Amino acid sequence: MATGKDPAGAPDFTPHRPIVVIGPMAVGKSVIGAELARVLRIEFIDSDHKIVAKHGPVPGIFAAKGEHHFRQLEARAIADVLDTPKAKPLVLSLGGGAVLDSGTQQLLARATVVFLSAGVDTVKERITRNTGRPLLSADPIATWERLAAVRGPVYARLADITLDVSKSNVPQLVERLIGLLAEESRKEN
Ligand SMILES: Nc1ncnc2c1ncn2[C@@H]1O[C@H](COP(=O)(O)OP(=O)(O)OP(=O)(O)O)[C@@H](O)[C@H]1O
Ligand SMILES: O=C(O)C1=C[C@@H](O)[C@@H](O)[C@H](O)C1
Ligand SMILES: [Mg+2]
């Protein structure tokens, strides 16, 4: 495994446990998680992608079997990654609502949890395009704000690191995140 030494000058950082990325819809969990894993040269897993690969598109699952069934698939996909005696260092990006499951909340104690935070202005354009998020099919802006407000305290409680993702591009955010992860890892040891 390589360390997090990036051409952009990020500090050295070698993860020793999974890094889990959480936060509201469209804040960048998938793209930032994937870029972080690429720079750290560790595996990247996205819970939504895992579900889609096995069961087809998210809107189809919601339409055919309902949100509760999707939540069960999601909790299982996450447990497959984290519920092992010694989970390896990797980056796991979650869907926006995954943290509501109590089993998932417990498993996150085995990981370094990164909460990507942003206000609605940052995600407005992203969520008003049709992007396959069934919960945002009607009135996406108001619904995003409501869900973000309800889930915000849960994200904050579970987070080891909170990163404001407004006003920066993905490489800048990954560089900053590696610095924060290095600091957090010094505290853990
Ligand atoms: N910092 C950023 N600057 C510009 N565009 C971004 C940034 N972060 C993410 N994006 C873009 O926003 C969109 C949503 O990003 P992404 O799919 O990673 O969000 P997400 O948090 O994983 O959403 P979901 O909850 O649906 O899984 C993508 O088109 C992505 O390229
Ligand atoms: O925030 C949510 O509840 C969701 C977010 C997406 O990532 C998907 O997991 C799904 O559309 C539900
Ligand atoms: Mg995603």
From TrEMBL:
It catalyses: shikimate + ATP = 3-phosphoshikimate + ADP + H(+). CDD domains: SK. PROSITE patterns: SHIKIMATE_KINASE. Substrate binds at residues 48, 71, 96, 151. Its EC number is 2.7.1.71. Its main location: cytoplasm. HAMAP family: Shikimate_kinase. This is Shikimate kinase. It comes from Arthrobacter stackebrandtii. The gene is aroK.
